[in-house]
Structures are given as C-alpha cells and as structure tokens.
Amino acid sequence: MSFEINGKVALVTGANRGIGKAIVESLLAHGAKKVYAAVRDPQSAQPLVAQYGDRVVPIEVDLQNEATVHAAAQTASDVELVVNNAGVYKSESPLSPKAFDALQFEFDVNVYGLIRVAQAFAPVLKKNGGGAFVQLNSVVSIKTFGSAATYSASKAASYSITQALREELGAQGTVVVSVHPGPIATDMADAAGFGEIAEPASLVSEAIVDALKNEEFHVFPDSMAKQFYAGYENYAKNYIEANMAEA
C-alpha cells in the first residue's frame, strides 16, 4: 500500500533534533498538513514552531512513561502517520560491569518504548483509515558491533518487533516501514565515534518519504547502510518480507 504525505497529519517522536527534526522538516516540505512534535520537553520544539507556525504542534511523549504515550494518542487523535524516531545510545560491551544497566535502559526506550507507541497509536491509525507506522532501527540491528553491543541488541530486538508490527498492523491497513541508517550526523553518531564519516540526516528523512510512496518495508538510506543492504537484500526479500505461510 502506497502512502502519500501530502495533506496528512503526522506525529514524530524525538522531533526536536537530529534525525527527528529532519523528518519533521521533510514531512512538512512534502505537504504534511500538521506534525505533532512528540518530545519529553515540549519547549524544546519551540524552534520548529517559530519556523513553521501552527503546522507544528509540540506534545509531551516520554517513551519510558506509558501514561504520556497514551495521553498523546488521545490528544493527537487525528494522526495518520506515526514515526517512532526517539531512541537512546548508552552502549557497553557484554563484559562491561555497566552492561546490565545499559541494556536495561536501552531496551526500555528502544524496544519497550516502541511497543508502547505501537499499542497506543494502532487504534488511532485504524480509526483514521489505516495510515502508516515508521520505526527507526539501525544497521546494527543486523550486525552487532562489540563496543556497541547493548545498543545493537536493543535495535535487533526493535527490528524484530517491527517485523511483527508489519504483519499485525498490515491486517488493519497500516503501512509499516523499518529504517536502518548507518552513521548520521547527530549527537549519537558523535558519541559512538562516527562523527567524521556521518552523513546528513536529510538522507534518512527523504528516504522515509520515498519508502512510504513506493511501498517499501526496508530503508537503508546512507552509504554505509547501502553497503549492508547489498549483502542483506536477498535474505530480506526472500525471508523477512516474504509471506512464509504461503511458502
């Protein structure tokens, strides 16, 4: 199912900076009627409001706080597109004494947060005709980096959940997209030591728009991501995206 941005109402988590901010800007550039900027502190989205006026509506969402997610779903009851971009990076190796704390934190936001958003907004999307749900995963969802092991594990889990959402939400007419960037010019990339090779966040946001239009589940938007996908595409097409019940 193709999903056109023009005239639609969207919600983007983690919308105040980095990839999230770029997604808001791309959606508006492609004709989105309104974008809810879902952030922990609504004041942090005021620069977007100053630039785009009432087409941007800040709304409180903390992925660790289920109450804020459900409250946002009630407020943003006109949403037709949900982009769950917010995530955290606090990675440790498996042998680090901080591994358990890092893994617990990253899973709470990157995995449980995804489930909280999906459960809260699935009924909203269904009521509004199906719509679309986009999840920001990562290339590390298919390849673990030892120094980023806990983050990689959380993104592998979120990718797994996204695959399940594709099946379940698809039954209600909701398009699901899984996005797998490599190093993108954000604070997270700097923290991970990839700042020198990071590419613009607009590569991700524009690729999301194209994927929704072209009915693509997987998005590997940047140079490193495309290298990963070159080796992964055959498996992705024949197993992840295939209807195994019909195989």
List the SSEs and their pairings.
Layout: E1 9-13, H1 18-29, E2 34-39, H2 46-52, E3 56-60, H3 66-75, E4 81-84, H4 99-110, H5 112-127, E5 132-136, H6 149-170, E6 175-179, H7 187-191, H8 202-214, E7 218-219, H9 223-240
Parallel strand pairs: 1-2, 1-4, 2-3, 4-5, 5-6, 6-7
Helix pairs in contact: 1-8, 3-5, 4-6, 5-6
Please give a structural write-up.
- The longest helix is centred in the middle third of the chain and has 22 residues, at 149-170.
- The mean pLDDT is 94.
- The protein has nine helices and seven strands, in the order βαβαβαβααβαβααβα.
- Helix 1 (18-29) packs across helix 8 (202-214), helix 3 packs parallel to helix 5 (112-127) and helix 4 (99-110) packs parallel to helix 6 (149-170).
- The chain is globular.
- The chain has one domain: Rossmann fold, CATH 3.40.50.720.
- The protein is α/β, with parallel strands linked by helices.
- The protein has a seven-stranded parallel β-sheet, sandwiched between helices.
Number of helical stretches of at least 4 residues: 9
Mean pLDDT: 94
Termini, distance in Å? Answer: 22 Å
Largest sheet, strands/sense/barrel: 7 strands, parallel
Q: What would CATH call the homologous superfamily?
A: NAD(P)-binding Rossmann-like Domain
Write the CATH fold name.
Rossmann fold
Which CATH-level-2 architecture?
Answer: 3-Layer(aba) Sandwich
Number of domains: 1
Radius of gyration: 17 Å
Query: Structural class of the secondary elements?
Result: alpha/beta
Strand percent estimate: 5-15%
